[in-house]
Amino acid sequence: MKAYLKELRFPSIDHTYIKNITKKVNDVVGKSKINNGFILINSKHTTLGIIVNEIAEPNLLQDFIDHSLSSVYEDKRSTKVHKDYKHGVKDYLHRCQDNPYCDEIDEDYNAAAHIRAITYSHSSITIPVRNGKPELGKYQEVAIFEFDGRDGKGKNPIRQRVVQVWVYPVEEIEEIK
């Protein structure tokens, strides 16, 4: 059986946000024409995660964002910190420039974004597909949680993000009774 892949690509210009991708995931499953199987949704980035939760409720999303920003302090050297910054700040050791594999001209200090990503999201998730549809609960939807979007100001490039949707069919499902 053949597996399917769709890459969702987009610029990420806002620092921290949650974006619903459920419709795009459903579209990929529909185009694959599989009846049963699994989808794996994978972020190709260390500061952009995947979540499954109640995404349709905007106040809850804002609570998620506010909690993540309040509980993990921003690096006081970060370009996101300004005189009106309402969350806590602290000193971190991390600098993007220290990574020997980094090919970006990046002068921001984003240790907090990495910590938020491993605390509040997943790098990938797997969802079963049955009868041609993802098996999500009544209120569950799939979203990306961005922790380190860039607006392109200064030497910090706008983040070009990639999320992969892998579709793996199975021949049949036999329910155990």
TrEMBL record:
<dbReference type="InterPro" id="IPR035917">
    <property type="entry name" value="YjbQ-like_sf"/>
</dbReference>
<dbReference type="InterPro" id="IPR001602">
    <property type="entry name" value="UPF0047_YjbQ-like"/>
</dbReference>
<comment type="similarity">
    <text>Belongs to the UPF0047 family.</text>
</comment>
<dbReference type="Pfam" id="PF01894">
    <property type="entry name" value="YjbQ"/>
</dbReference>
<protein>
    <submittedName>
        <fullName>Secondary thiamine-phosphate synthase enzyme</fullName>
    </submittedName>
</protein>
